Amino acid sequence: MRDIARARQAIGARLKELRLDARLTGRQLAARYGWQPSKISKIESGKQTPSEADIEAWCRAVERPDEQADLIASLRAMETLYAEWRRQLRHGTKAKQQNWLEMEAETKSFRVFEPCVIPGLLQTGEYARQRLAQSIAFYETPNDLEEGVATRLRRQEILYDSSRTFHFVILEAALRLGMAPLDVMFGQLDRLMAASAMPRVRLGVIPMQTVLPFTPLNGFWLLDRRVVLAETYSAELTLTLPKEIKQHERMFDLYAKAAHYGPLARRLIASAIEALSQLAEDSATT
């Protein structure tokens, strides 16, 4: 995959920079560890993937132990950096939801930003059914809708675990966009009202008129301080580099500061419910 090749090349290029900064030739570095000289050139050109032991030895030889953590994180992220949706969903939505469940089971602190949809951990069954049905239709994956919905709802059991904390930030647009039929949206907004009062759950809503601190390009999930998950139309990104995690933490903090919480957040949800009620009345009279 081209993305993996680019990631391998980036690692190789950085290792080459470190070697040159240390004024070591490739032969000198190879001789220090009994490597074939060709191994150095292959790693630096991105034709061979270094092992974690290779990176540790390399950083030791160039006297740059401070580079080791980022390079190893890049290596670990390489295979999971870009995972195609069709490949992930080839066994249906249940398998994908099960993967999320397993990742969440390892997580203590959840920070979630979503601009247009209700986060999966807060979705009702009917709202989840709308989202997963769209995915099945668009990506032409096996139709295991009911199993996928059931697994997504099972993920929500973690909300009642006293050892976890949850901080959700959504745009008010997520409350008002036509992401589901009116009756489904009524139930979903009512669910948000209840979720906003749950222990260990902090729900922030950014009002429509707020001047946003940054363009909301996509939603993302911060699982502890170890991984960021972000979705595009064609892929799910799994980001593990420390600098990438820090960037998303900064972005989350910006959105969190712009959000309303507690009674103010519930007022925004209530306003959206009133708007839906008016829309339902208008539809009934036309």
Automatic annotation (TrEMBL):
SUPFAM superfamilies: lambda repressor-like DNA-binding domains (SSF47413)
Residues in HTH cro/C1-type domain copies: 15-68
SMART domains: HTH_XRE (SM00530)
PROSITE patterns in the record: HTH_CROC1 (PS50943)
Protein name per UniProt: Transcriptional regulator with XRE-family HTH domain
Organism: Nonomuraea roseoviolacea subsp. carminata
